[in-house]
Amino acid sequence: MSTTPPTPPAETIQLPAPTAAPMVVALGVTLGCGGLVTHWTVSLVGLVLMVAGAVGWWRQVLPEQQVAEVPLRPVAERARPAAPSAVSVERLRLGEGGHRMRLPVEVQPLSAGIRGGLVGGAAMALVALAYGLVVQRSLWYPINLLAAVAMPEMSQADLPALRAFNAPALLLGIIAHGLLSMLVGLLYAVILPMLPQRHVVWGGLVAPLLWTGLLWALLGVINPVLNARVDWPWFILSQVAFGLATGFVVSRAHPIATMQSWPRVVRAGLAGPGGPPDQDRKP
After folding, report:
1. Pairing relation of β-strands 106-107 and 67-71?
2. Separation CA 243–CA 206 (nearest Å)
3. pLDDT at 126
4. How many CA atoms lie within 13 A of 179 on its CB side?
């Protein structure tokens, strides 16, 4: 008879059982929203998936939470605990010797984003007006086309009506264009400091081409009539003009140092040595 002792059971840890229910719910919500701009059957499929995923997710925790036993490594194979050391460590300053930093260290003021948005909006408007004069023989065509996004009667208007003066469309176009330009300018002021150098290239070429491609893909579904009237080469040229002007104004603004360079005690709101001057702490 063999007298080999029995193998002790391996140590395990309990973790929540894996499930695909959250991804099914997310897919159902996505299809449900996508059906609002495509077809009602897409929303129906999304609703079925969302309900099925929600039921499966619910059954993972009720009436009892489902868990999975994950075995642990033997003690001999586990990493040894780090032994404390009394040797002092010389701390590097931010950016010194390749030391990693929390970026951005400096940000552009929000006022620069508003100024850049207004300047970029003016540059974009000049290109749009040039398109109206050269191609459509009317200054009012691009303005009426912009107002057609919020005015259904303008989106269904014929070509002579789009070339004619329309006071409500002019007022709506100026307000909408100004507000959107300032909002995008604020985004430039926030995002550009987090990107690599050559901000004018990122803001003047990369960003306009990205959002133009997104708008080209969505406008055909949201408003096919308006999509058929947009002259995309001129539209891209106007977006690039906006991006170049806004990116230039934002990048030329004097940056503001963030709290990244402050000592930790000062960032926590405590009194401590080495803090920034009082005028630097003011918002």
Report:
1. unpaired
2. 9
3. 92
4. 6
Q: How far apart are CA 189 and CA 253, in angstroms?
A: 10
Residue 196: per-residue pLDDT: 65
Contacts of 10 (CB under 8 A, 6+ apart): 71, 72, 74
Strand-pair partners of 106: 257
Could you tell me how many helices (H) and strands (E) the chain has, helices first?
13, 4
Rounded distance, CA 141 to CA 138, Å?
6
Whole-angstrom distance, CA of residue 7 vs CA of residue 281? 65
Mean pLDDT of 234-249: 87
| Residue type at position 164 | A
- The pTM is what? 0.55
| Residue 19 CA from chain centroid, whole number | 29
Q: Using alpha carbons only, how large is the chain's radius of gyration in Å?
A: 30
Contacts of 132 (CB under 8 A, 6+ apart): 138, 139, 140, 141, 142, 143
Average pLDDT, the chain: 79
Helix (H, G, I), strand (E, B) or coil at 71: strand
Cβ-count burial 132-168 (b if 16+ within 10 Å, e if not): beeebebebbbbbbbbbbebeebbebeeeebbeebee
Determine the 3-state secondary structure of 70 from DSSP: strand
pLDDT digits (tens, 9 = 90+) for 196-212: 666 667 777 788 888 88
Domain ranges of the chain: 15-69, 106-252
Residue 259, pLDDT score:
67
28 pLDDT tier (thresholds 50, 70, 90):
very high
